[in-house]
Specification:
336 residues; alpha/beta; TIM Barrel; twelve-stranded mixed beta sheet; 12 strands; 29% helix; 17% strand; iron-sulfur; S-adenosyl-L-methionine binding; GTP-binding; GTP binding; rSAM_sf
Length: 336
């Protein structure tokens, strides 16, 4: 039997699966959840670790090599290291990463590394305690900073920091984040604020194109150059200050989409395949878990609907001429 590869109608071969293990989170970040919070899925609607591992096993045979665990906040799931170990044991999987807010990470970093976790992305949108608390609606930035140290001690490398850049909210900290890369092997990723589930006035007010990052470097007369050697850099456009140990990168899905090289699929915590983050299309795979051929066919069906690009730049311009229906699910419900 010849097992098909995960190739979409535009010839893009997919080898990367982002798995949301929960829609719950201990924080309420302003760009991810509304202030009133979310109505979370009942526990019995969430995929079990065994179900997730079964899906990964099947699609690893179709070419998936890289897995990223996300949420919500993935570390609100108990014993996440068990899932990491299950995925690490699947033939073909070469890389397992985690995206986390870092609040619960410090005491678990070594366990996750031992289970097979390769590396981490830690969300950190401000280095100022009160501002961090405001953006996250209650978070303690020191716990995140402790987690960065714990990951370095555990040997989780590279350590990447995800900074959602927001106009008038944290853009005055660009230089502070870049300075972190001088002495430590830390890789800061500035990310444009995306209108996922809420193309509204707040998003348009806070959106800031990442050209501002280079402007800050030039204002300080910092010398920097392009680099391309950061493991798992994906769509990031990477740079390094002269003599720095780490790097900084720009991920601009709105102003300069990278859809032409997209190689990722998403599996939501409640069991849906999403071929594109921005649009409403999704396919419930949980009902066919246990039937390998049905899982394969559902992933191929989902890929068949994947558009050429997400058209988010049109949201910024107020252009109503879009080819698909934007998702109404928030980022925490889909997986960051």
């Amino acid at each position: 039997m010849t097992i098909p590869r995960l190739i979409d109608p535009f010839g893009r071969e997919h080898h990367y699966l982002r798995i949301s293990v929960t829609d719950r989170c201990n924080l309420r970040c302003v760009y991810c959840m509304p202030e009133e919070g979310m109505e979370f899925e009942p526990a019995d609607h969430i995929l079990t670790y065994e179900e997730i591992a079964d899906v990964v096993r099947v699609i690893a045979e179709m070419g998936i090599r890289k897995v990223r665990l996300t949420g919500g906040e993935p570390l609100v799931r108990k014993e996440l290291e068990k899932l990491v170990a299950m995925i690490a044991a699947i033939p073909g999987i070469e890389d397992i990463a985690l995206t986390t807010n870092g609040i619960f990470l410090a005491p678990r970093a070594a366990l996750l590394k031992e289970a097979g976790l390769t590396r981490v992305n830690i969300s950190l949108d401000s280095l100022k305690p009160e501002r961090f608390k405001m953006i996250t609606r209650g978070g303690d930035v020191q716990k995140v900073l402790n987690s960065i140290d714990a990951c370095a001690k555990a040997g989780l490398s590279p350590i990447k920091l995800n900074v959602v850049l927001m106009n008038g909210l944290n853009d005055d900290e660009i230089a502070d984040f870049i300075e972190m890369t001088r002495e430590r092997d830390i890789h800061v990723r500035f990310i444009e604020y995306m209108p996922i589930g809420h193309n509204d006035a707040q998003w348009k007010k806070l959106y800031l194109p990442l050209t501002r990052v280079k402007e800050v470097c030039e204002e300080r007369q910092w010398k920097f150059s392009a680099v391309s050697s950061v493991q798992g850099s994906g769509p990031s456009e990477n740079y390094r200050l002269e003599g720095a140990a780490g790097s900084f990168g720009l991920i601009h899905p709105v102003s300069e989409h990278f859809c032409q090289t997209c190689n990722r699929l998403r599996l939501t915590a409640d069991g849906y395949i999403k071929p594109c983050l921005a649009w409403t299309e999704q396919f419930q795979v949980r009902s066919v878990i246990g039937d390998d051929e049905a899982i394969r066919q559902m992933f191929l069906e989902a890929l068949g609907t994947k558009p050429e690009n997400h058209e988010m730049s049109k949201f910024l311009k107020g252009d109503p001429d879009i080819s698909h229906t934007p998702t109404s699910r928030r980022m925490s419900q889909i997986g960051g």
